[in-house]
Please model this.
Amino acid sequence: MTLADPAQVPSRPVTALGAQSSARVRDLRLDFFRGLAMFIILIAHTPGNFLTSWIPARWGFSDATEIFVFCSGMASAIAFGGAFQRAGWPLGTARVLFRVWQVYWAHVGLFFATLALTVYLTELDITGRNYWGQLNLWMMFVESDKWDNSNILLSFMTLRYVPNYFDILPMYMIVLLLMPIIMLLARVNLWLVATFVSLVWIMGQTALLQAVGLGAYHFEFPAEPWTDRTWFFNPFGWQLIFFTGFAFMRGWLPKPPVTPLLIGIATFIVLANIPLSNIGVRELGFDWARDWRIAYKPLIDKSDFGILRYVHFLALAYLAWVLAGDKGARLMATGTGLLARLWTRILAIILKVGQQSLAVFVVSMFTARLMGFGMDVMGRDTLTTLAVNAAGFAVLIAVAYGAGWFKSHPWRAKATP
Model:
């Protein structure tokens, strides 16, 4: 299997989380940044991985989750937005429901595969660690006065039990289900779309609603029947970043101009985040930053998608958008030297991973647990950790190229000229 030249990638854009559309629109930046997010997500979910201390999330309020959801919104606009236009609202809605169905079974498969893996690794008894216990899956095996749910598998299948490690795909499903409403409102007036998205985000903000005495009306989903824990990723908060990407790709929001003023403002926001970030507290020793983060936690809250996470991501995304150039032109290598050829190969790999992000994401969450086990056995010195991460990257790349090969339908007869 050969690596594709980025200049020759298929003209069909990928849809949300990896499917492809027949629309003839493509922007390398979409696949590139989503591909980067896939590698970062693998690092972040690997237990005891020292590289996690230096991922972009440690330098600011937003992280790879925002990249993932924002880019998925953009890709959804290409795939599903076009379907609404071409086939009408009922069939567009049907296509969204079909995608939700696919993501649902990806969620179910990921859970049971990971559960089986962690049970097997625990039973090996090589390290003496309980790997399903690390994922807080005690209620699947242990009876306790703290929980009582004889129908736990039914609760899982109906999304009334959403374990912490398996919460991003349920969030994505709910956000997708909001898309038909968005498309219906867009037929009337785009300001209705903006109002709806803003109000839903507000109703997803726990601290804000409690402050004005409306906490009882907070939009959220219960994560388990035996406690008041809610989904870690509140879809009513996270839909804001998804539909921002969606609106940009649909042309509802104009692309921002490239001006020294905007570049300066975005740069200031990104740099000003560093003292208040994990790096500022951990490496720079800013105790005042730790106090600030505690005092203003709702503004940077990940579960409800606090507003400062949104501001930081938009500033970072703007700078990345400017640096990458029109449709990612600056991402392409120039010249024919060794470095240019090497970067061309690397870029092709990143793009492929971004194009197949549902398959890659599911496998990455499974692989991360295996990588953690590997380092438990072999140790976590620098060389071992780097080698394990490299092996994990190789798995994701292989999955991306394999998924791409299957989606190309190589068994179909090629049309004769």
In short: Residues 1-25 have pLDDT under 50 and may be disordered. The radius of gyration is 22 Å.
